[in-house]
Amino acid sequence: MRLTIITSITGVLVLLYILELLRRQQLREKYAVIWLAIGLAVAPLGFFPDLLDSTARRVGIASGVSLVLFAGFVMVLLVCLHLSWEASRLEAETRSLAEEVALLRSHLVEHHGYPVSKQNKAETADDTEVYS
Predict the structure, then answer these.
(1) Contact present, 67 and 59 (Cβ < 8 Å)
(2) Which residues cross the membrane (predicted)?
(3) CA distances to 45, 95, 104, 105, 121 from 117, in Å
(4) What pTM was estimated for this model as a whole?
């Protein structure tokens, strides 16, 4: 089987998978837009691999396929960087929310008689004076 056919079929399958994830609401729209744009840009190149040959020659790259490979590598690096930034942001937000919940729980225990669960008592065994 020729590489162009395999690439084309793979591109179409990836696009269909992204649409299925969107339909099931397992992929948020802000990420789906990026992947759909990449898929729509790359899928035609599988059917017509010579589309980027002239652009590649102008840039100084031997063939359009090499240009697509390089652009794909750069895109994967950017996606990894974005996901790392997103994970860092979510970790900071989770930590902030956990601290806020702990402060609210402490306030409820001290001022409103909020019952402390056994798990919380075990975790805060050192702080029993505060909660009693």
Answers:
(1) yes
(2) 6-22, 31-49, 61-85
(3) 60, 21, 15, 11, 6
(4) 0.61
